[in-house]
Amino acid sequence: MPDQDPFLTDPPFEGHRILATTAPHAAVLHRRGDRWTLSGSGRLWGGDARFHYVWKKVSGDFALAASLPEGSPAGSAGLMIRESLQVACSAAAAYLLPGGRPVLQTCDTPGAETRELLAGSTGHRRIRIERRGSYISMSTAADDGTWAPTGGSILLPFKGSFYLGVAAWECGEGATLGFSAPEFFELSPGSDRLVCALEVMELDTLRRRVVYQTDQHIEAPNWSRDGASLVFNGGGRLFRIGQGGGAPRPIDTGFAVRCNNDHGLSPDGSLLAISDHSEEGHSLIYVLPSSGGAPRRVTRPGPSYWHGWSPDGSTLAYCAQRDGVFGIFTIPAAGGDERRVTTAAAGGLDDGPDYSPDGRWIYFNSDRTGRMQIWRVHPDGKGLEQVTFDAYNNWFAHPSPDGRHLVLLSYEPDVAGHPPNKDVRLRLLPSAGGEPRVLACFFGGQGTINVPSWSPDSKQFAYVTYQLFPKA
């Protein structure tokens, strides 16, 4: 049977062309049965991008699925969402790396750097790229045909209709790449399933990778001092997981089974500070062996919310409410009298204290000037300085172990407090001063990065993102 023009026989697509400033050769598209073949045509991203694209114009919440070949250095094909057919536009592409690992790449503004989200699982052939509201995400198909999210999503707002299709690109001349069984989905509006993803970002590349995903609500990862594992909380308990993934293992915290998202490891890795509600119905701070064991109570009054260890491991920093007023406090890790470092404005909040690696400063967030901003103060309460001054509401600034950076969580200007399930962005601020750099935009908030989560070498940090996904 000869190849047929796909646009004459029950077409799922509406058009195709080489997207580039100048087309190097004709766009060749063949269809035989349910298998399609496109001619590859160069790079997918950048100023010299040149690729073959077959598309359908859609609007609203939509998805496209297809069976794809695994990627190779010689070229690849992927599912693509584009704001327009201009070469420089907001776009996202999902494809398979060697071994069948899904990856989602995005470019959120024309000419901007490309961002990448790596799924935590491998061995896939059929994937789906999805657009729900302003978020782009991926799913993979099980043997029974049901779809499951790969974890993580990327904020990429489009206005009005957009283009959904398949792109082919390659590094050599004249290569062709195939895909099969394309299927468009108009997605239902239901969003009653919250999928949580524990992610790690590489600072140099901004590559995000999913370490673990679950339908159970999880929060606030800490990185172990040896770099091998991560600690997070969920359902009132604490868990440890390898930084490369695997099955989480519960940490024995004795009677403390109402742990919140304020916890962290001592500088030498031997102790774990937790904040728990089990004894008196409000948060109190305890210390226990990092391998698990009986908690030892540190703070007598409450509520008290742990946030930082001093670099020498002798002192804890925390947010607490005393006589109706919030502030930043410190206390010896071995127990003793607490010391008030700051006092919030009436009705206000000072929160999220974390020590600089040289111990000279405690960084924290405060709404004392109206909007929530990052501040710092010496541990003796002197030298109070404001660090950020922008229009965002900024929370939970964590210094990197090498002292070069602060990573922080930023809410939109109209968001009060630090609620969950909001459009947020992670930003990086030079410790020496300067403008914050946006690292990633996603659905998150409370539980994303409440506590210190840098890797010990300052090259990566961990956080949690959330994704609303209809029940299967």
List the helices and strands and how they pair.
Layout: E1 15-19, E2 29-32, E3 35-39, E4 51-58, E5 62-67, E6 75-82, E7 91-97, E8 101-107, E9 115-118, E10 126-132, E11 135-141, E12 147-155, E13 162-170, E14 176-186, E15 193-202, E16 207-214, E17 219-223, E18 229-234, E19 237-242, E20 245-251, E21 264-265, E22 271-276, E23 284-289, E24 296-297, E25 304-309, E26 315-322, E27 325-332, E28 339-340, E29 350-355, E30 362-369, E31 371-377, E32 385-386, E33 393-399, E34 405-411, E35 422-430, E36 437-444, E37 460-469
Parallel strand pairs: 9-16
Antiparallel strand pairs: 1-4, 2-3, 3-14, 4-13, 5-10, 5-14, 6-7, 6-13, 7-8, 8-9, 10-11, 11-12, 15-16, 15-37, 17-18, 18-19, 19-20, 21-22, 22-23, 23-24, 25-26, 26-27, 27-28, 29-30, 30-31, 31-32, 33-34, 34-35, 35-36
